[in-house]
């Protein structure tokens, strides 16, 4: 087990009871380092929430080991509770309390909470402090859940879909708050099915599919598992290889070339060297390549290829 990691899981499984039963988490290994944001990314039903609940110590694993800050977060909950914050999708607030009452009630259970109005300001709910919880919108309840999670200034924060249901401005505000918490040294494990969120926030991420990790790395490392792409319009003086007339495309090893009318797409594992070859070919043949583009693969392309699925993906 990685001793420097703040959250670790080894061969973690979670099986829901009943017959025939369901294996929601099927043997996860991961190690989240201090101060990083680690995202569990996956489509609906991939096992993200089931895994997060076990990692945060809210549920017991069926088998395998979890450690948070060196402790078993389920059996030794007392030892880690004051050092972690948890935001779940299902909230269960008392509907008749106001926003401020909800926060101060929760603050009463913590050793050194932030001041109520400070935390409400951080999540953008200060102007709603005297509104009853039942009158809050879904997005506002979501932000109240985040307020409670960060109230005790936790070292480790577990966030289950923290921006689900938020409008774009509230989502940006939440991202900025999470980035500030990271800067102050907080370790964050969050679940998301939004690729844009994973790209924007995650230092590293695990792609989950059917309860297993099928991809692990930085967003850039995962994107780099797919070929980069160069596109351009073939100049009239140029032609596909073996064409009897004019200037053939250069021979490019490991490159998959597709030509549609005059539009060329080159898929390459090495963007820089292929682009260098293409530009040298154009220069040597005095060709002007129209609409030339060159870009690495995106996280979305990698995600779709790795999971083999386009269902429920928000780009
Ligand atoms: N209490 C439960 N009893 C039985 N099966 C469950 C239970 N909770 C979750 N599951 C099943 O476990 C699988 C994983 O669910 P989970 O909620 O962890 O997925 P998720 O990746 O978080 O999905 P979403 O993005 O929709 O929240 C699903 O097939 C789900 O139906």
Automatic annotation (TrEMBL):
What does the record list as GO biological process? response to antibiotic
Membrane topology label: Peripheral membrane protein
Coiled-coil stretches are: none
UniProt keywords (A-Z) are: Antibiotic resistance, ATP-binding, Nucleotide-binding, Transport
* Alphabetized Gene3D superfamilies for the sequence: P-loop containing nucleotide triphosphate hydrolases (3.40.50.300)
Q: Which PROSITE patterns match?
A: ABC_TRANSPORTER_1, ABC_TRANSPORTER_2
Entry keyword Nucleotide-binding: yes
Positions of the ABC transporter domain: 7-235
* Gene Ontology MF, one: ATP binding
Q: Per its UniProt record, what PANTHER family does this chain match?
A: ABC TRANSPORTER ATP-BINDING PROTEIN
Instruction: From the Swiss-Prot or TrEMBL record, give the protein name.
Output: ABC-2 type transport system ATP-binding protein
Q: Which organism is it from?
A: Kribbella italica
């Amino acid at each position: 087990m990685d001793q420097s990691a703040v959250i670790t899981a080894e061969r973690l499984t979670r099986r829901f009871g009943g017959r025939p039963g369901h294996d929601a988490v099927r043997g996860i290994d991961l190690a989240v380092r201090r101060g990083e944001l680690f995202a569990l990314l996956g489509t609906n039903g991939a096992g993200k929430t089931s895994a997060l609940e076990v990692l945060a110590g809210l549920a017991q694993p069926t088998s395998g080991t979890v450690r948070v800050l060196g402790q078993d977060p389920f059996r030794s909950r007392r030892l880690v509770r004051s050092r972690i914050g948890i935001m779940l999708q299902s909230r269960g607030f008392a509907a008749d309390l106001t926003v401020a009452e909800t926060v101060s009630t929760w603050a009463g259970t913590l050793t050194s909470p932030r001041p109520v109005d400070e935390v409400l300001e951080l999540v953008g709910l200060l102007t709603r402090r005297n509104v009853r919880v039942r009158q809050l919108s879904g997005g506002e309840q979501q932000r109240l859940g985040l307020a409670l999670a960060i109230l005790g200034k936790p070292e480790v924060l577990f966030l289950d879909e923290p921006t689900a249901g938020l409008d774009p401005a509230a989502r940006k505000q939440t991202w900025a708050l999470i980035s500030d918490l990271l800067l102050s040294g907080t370790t964050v494990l969050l679940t998301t099915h939004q690729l844009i969120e994973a790209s924007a926030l995650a230092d590293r991420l695990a792609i989950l599919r059917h309860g297993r990790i099928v991809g692990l790395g930085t967003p850039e490392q995962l994107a780099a598992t797919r070929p980069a792409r160069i596109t351009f319009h073939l100049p009239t003086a140029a032609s596909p290889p073996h064409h009897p007339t004019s200037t053939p495309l250069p021979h490019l090893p490991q490159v998959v070339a597709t030509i549609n009318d005059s539009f060329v797409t080159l898929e390459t594992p090495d963007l820089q060297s292929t682009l260098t070859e293409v530009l040298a070919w154009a220069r040597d043949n005095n060709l002007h390549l129209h609409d030339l583009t060159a870009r690495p693969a995106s996280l979305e392309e990698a995600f779709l290829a790795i999971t083999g699925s386009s269902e429920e993906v928000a780009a």
